[in-house]
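Handoff note, outgoing to incoming analyst
You'll be picking up this chain. Sequence as last confirmed:
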Amino acid sequence: MGFWNSLKAQWYAKGVKRSTLGRIAVPVIIENSKGARNYLDIGSGCGTLTLPLASAGKRVTALDSSTAMLELLRTEAERQKLDNIKIQNREWGVGKIAAHDAVIISNVPALVREREGFLEEVSAIARKFVFIIESAGPGADKFYYKELYPMLFGREFPARRDYLSTYSKLHALGIYANVRIIEYDFDQPFDDLNEAVEFWKEYLGLVTGEFDDILKTFLQKKLVQTRTGLKAPFRKRSAIIWWKQKKRT
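Most recent structure output, in case you need it:
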């Protein structure tokens, strides 16, 4: 099932519905990809960018290895009556990928930074534009891990690489990309405190109830009451990196 099991996928989809990432990032993508008729969203997940792009009238291919994520995307596309989304459930590099006018890679650092030759592979199938969205700020937190790691594991949450490492790699390849820093909300909703505790246990890999009381006490101070339950409010900063492909001769 991989990282995105059914439970995590459902939680993520609930967060996406409250997220402003699509609302902020998609206009930037459309504005800077004039002439693109179709888009390939690599690591589309449950449709953070695919759905708003399709709603804007763009043809989108959603590529993801998580069946659970793509089932949620399919359900939401049907609910919105969007028939301009093509879903491909497979890992990158498995089978041939058709060329698209624009290719988008949003928050898939394992591919961008760790797969040898990935950027060259993407360049080969992007006819006009490439967009990469990655976290901005090596000191960025994740789900309050900076506070939780010392409490639970007795060690600091390690610093995370951000978009600058990708930008440097592009520069070394002779790609001098544009960068736009954006900020957006990604509030994670919960029905109650018990669900929130299960969320953090799942993401932290805690399989016993040893830390339940610590998590409950901590989260009671962090979560905000809403009309329908609770939410963990997060403000994130990302970089949209993009460039126009050189004309092939």
